[in-house]
Request: fold
Amino acid sequence: MSLAASIAAPAALASRASASRRGRARLASRGVTDASRRVVGARGPIDRVARAVASPSLPSGPLDDLPVPDFLRGPLGDIVRNVETALPDDAKKALLRTQYTSAVGLRLAFFLTQGVLSSRVSGRSNIDGAAAAAAIAKAVLDPAPRAKIPDEKSNLGNIVSNAADGRALTDDEAAEVSQFLEQHLTCIVNLFRTELEHLENGTYKFPYDLNPATAPTEQWNPAQVLAIASDTLSDQAKVSDRRNAKRGQELLDTFGPDPERYPAYYLQNFHYQTDGWLSADSARLYDFQVETLFLGSADTMRRQALPFVSRWMEGRDPADTKVLDVASGTGRFLTFVRDNWPELDCTAVELSPHYLDAVRKSNERFEDVATYPRAGPLKLVEANCEKMPFEDASFDAVTNVYLFHEMPKEARRNAAREFARVLKPGGKLFFVDSAQVGDGKALGMEKAFDQALERFPQFNHEPYYRDYSLTNLEELFGEFGLVLEESTVAWVSKAWCFTKREDPSEAVEEVEPVVVEAPDLSGAGAR
Ligand SMILES: C[S@@+](CC[C@H](N)C(=O)[O-])C[C@H]1O[C@@H](n2cnc3c(N)ncnc32)[C@H](O)[C@@H]1O
Reply:
């Protein structure tokens, strides 16, 4: 992603002015928040048949929201259900395809526009929106199941003319960067094609947030979308300032090292993000920033772990299945898991009280008994995942998305050990993070890919990313008895599935936790 990042990333890595330092310090000293330990939702009657979506499920919404008289709701509901049952699978697939392509097309266009605007605001690079759109159109129109990755012969016109530092690129440089971007844009289109296949095969449900009838209002209400877009853009200057000054350690000034509560590596402005992980504003803007960075494909990349979950859930009773989502962020991935298997008994662990509160909010939808009559409980726990307050072997599955690339090596080991410890023998780890060096081969673009992995962390204050991208995860998790089952590359992400060995005595090595060292706060290390 490096050059894509150096051009498109200024758009994404903005966040708004935040709560006062005093307010934050107060929150920091309060310990576990009100949100933690709260139990949300109620478990209803048990349906013993685990739901694997056997055929494509059409996007649908609650009829309650339709502007029709009450006496029509019953018959209308019957008609909708009958039509859905009677429709042949081919017709369902055609409908689903139309809905999916319009939803992700709109999303891609929206976030591309946001990226172009942001590149103008930052004044560093200029993305030519029309050239980028042409590259996307070419990939969309390619009749093959996966669009061909463009090579140097492709000449759609340059997508950029400036480098990340604002310097004008020579013609050759501009052509090279543009080809690199064209390749990545093609990969995004291919990622969406992969997801559409999963939906058509009924591997998982049509994502609730791509359907206007069921999406959260902040995603579809124009006033709310404009507000968050404008807040993100208006913070761009602060993020750029931080990036120019390579100031990624502001949080340490506010909180000071507090190893009891926050490890030193945590108190950083990852992505030069305002307030790091420690404010409500940061949590409010996070998803929008991430989606801008990945041009609307971040949720789709997260969901590429769902086919693994889906296979595992076949024949299982979700109400009797305990899932722990570690470092939930705002809870996006958890909402997709719960939307597919609402009966699951879930727990979310987060170190930031503000993000934990965002998990509570994003999961409020499962309290609507009309839509989710049998939703299982959700517990919210504020804790460091290197030392979690759970019994050994207490979960059937652990899920973890986009965490490890932000942890130093020792912390990753601690977390891996914890994942293994809390999993039952035979339990699963569903893991998503950045793709790693060499993974571009699977997509047919190794060079552009490895360049991206090398340059992205330099531009984005990701001090542990490079090391992560070279880490052998099979070995790391294997050391603690987690055996690799399968993995898949999803553009710049990779989804993995591990199984905890059945024999618990060999599974978890007894090792003392390693003390995590503070990051280098001086010189280049403190970028
Ligand atoms: C890049 S975000 C990923 C969030 C989310 N899983 C997603 O898919 O977007 C990293 C998250 O991990 C949390 N985090 C970082 N270190 C942690 C730790 N040691 N224990 C628990 N949470 C942590 C941060 O607060 C942040 O919300």
Observations:
- The beta strands are 39-40, 322-326, 345-350, 378-382, 395-401, 423-434, 482-490, 493-500.
- The two ends are 18 Å apart (CA to CA).
- The longest strand covers residues 423-434.
